[in-house]
Design a protein that fits this description.
Distance between the termini: 9 Å
Strand order of the largest sheet: 7-6-15-16-17-14-18
Order of helices and strands: EHEEEHEEEEHEEEEEHHEEEEHHEEEH
CATH architecture of the largest domain: Alpha-Beta Complex
Number of helices: 8
Bound molecules: flavin-adenine dinucleotide
Largest sheet: 7 strands, mixed
Shape: globular
CATH class of the largest domain: Alpha Beta
Length: 326
């Protein structure tokens, strides 16, 4: 059987691995301790925060079909949030998501979806692929210590664009195109409170400030504790990408306190996460990259747009094509 290494166990990596397993021996190599990638959940003793992706929508038939069994099994649920739109510190519009397009979340955590998909797959966690090299017609992967992580017929890279670009050897014909795809950063501020706070929304988009999003994470189905999750704007993150994290946290607390009109720094739990690669704009390229001659491929949200559905579609379309090649 052909053997394939998939780099990354985010949604795209899990989807491509599951599908290729029909016809190949697949090994997933993931640098984090668990699957999910940017569909991430930070769990503390009392609180949970989906500190990456907040929710997802499903427009395509393929993604709706994919979600149906996950919904039935309880790994995905609808989040019928009370939704507000802020202009600076004022609410200018209020609605209820159950009335409009369905908004989905992983349950009991955003990362549950990848937990489910990766079950039964051969995943090695805590291992960062640092180099990919073609030797005698096969791909040899190495970690940062130069240790060999196996040799493979095919490799599929699903890391964010810049990380994929760094790993691709120069002979790969799509490397230059990947190098042109830019991703924006973001900061996530996590606030946990022992006593619930009465807010006028479960989810809010904020315009005209350095904050882009505030949600009551614990208003999502099957969550524990009372937790609030805040995202900075991509622009503010870009301007502060190398700023000390505690300084970033102080500023995000100030901006959020202005919007919510109470001092959020009194939270019982405070943490900030820096995302160097969070989102990407809509791309006009093909939905995946494939170099048949070199037996290397790449997929992920950034091939289409920085959204969960895009990550799925990119991986699905690549898998459909690769199954014809293997
Ligand atoms: C703050 C934030 C908010 C977001 N909000 C939303 C939202 O509300 N709705 C929405 O639809 N989308 C949202 N997104 C985007 C969404 O999370 C992504 O579109 C989706 O999760 C991408 O999945 P992926 O598998 O393509 O990539 P990823 O999830 O990034 O998976 C790539 C994986 O590769 C691993 N990896 C990277 N380099 C290596 C290496 N060298 N070796 C081994 N492993 C490696 C990473 O650890 C990661 O697990 C958000 C993202 C962020 C960060």
């Amino acid at each position: 059987m052909v053997n394939v290494a998939v780099i990354g166990a985010g949604l795209a990596g899990c989807v491509v691995s599951k599908q290729l397993s029909e016809r190949a021996t697949v090994k997933i190599l993931e640098k984090s301790k668990s699957p999910g990638g940017r569909m991430a959940t930070r769990v503390s003793s009392q609180y949970e925060f989906d500190h990456g992706a907040q929710f997802f929508t499903a427009r395509s038939v393929e993604f709706k079909n994919f979600l149906s069994s996950l919904l039935n099994e309880g790994h995905v649920a609808c989040w019928n949030a009370r939704f507000s739109e802020y202009q600076s510190t004022d609410i200018i519009r209020e609605t209820h998501w159950s009335d409009s397009r369905v908004h989905y979340v992983g349950t009991p955590k955003m990362s549950s979806l990848a937990d489910r998909l990766s079950t039964g797959l051969d995943c090695t966690f805590d291992v960062e692929v640092a180099k990919a090299e073609k030797k005698n017609g096969r791909w040899v992967l190495y970690d940062s210590q130069g240790e060999i992580l196996g040799d493979y017929d095919w490799i599929v890279l699903t890391a964010p664009a810049a990380q994929t670009h760094n790993l691709l050897p120069n002979e790969v014909d799509f490397k230059a195109k990947v190098g042109l795809i830019k991703m924006s950063g973001c900061y996530s501020l996590m606030l946990g409170y022992q006593n619930a706070i009465d807010l006028p929304f479960d989810a809010a988009v904020v315009k005209g400030t350095n904050i882009s999003w505030i949600s009551v994470n614990s208003s999502k189905p099957k969550r524990k504790g009372f937790s609030i999750l805040i995202h900075s704007t991509n622009n503010w993150a870009a301007q502060n990408m190398d700023t000390d994290l505690s300084e970033v946290q102080d500023k995000l607390c100030d901006y959020t306190s202005d919007i919510l009109r109470f001092n959020v720094e009194t939270a019982d739990y405070l943490e900030t996460k820096r995302w160097r690669f969070a989102n990407s704009a809509r791309q006009t390229n093909q939905p995946f990259f494939l170099d048949k001659k070199n037996k290397v491929a790449s997929c992920g949200d950034w091939c289409i747009k920085g959204r969960i559905e895009a990550a799925f579609l990119s991986a699905k379309k690549l898998s459909d094509q690769l199954l014809k090649e293997l």
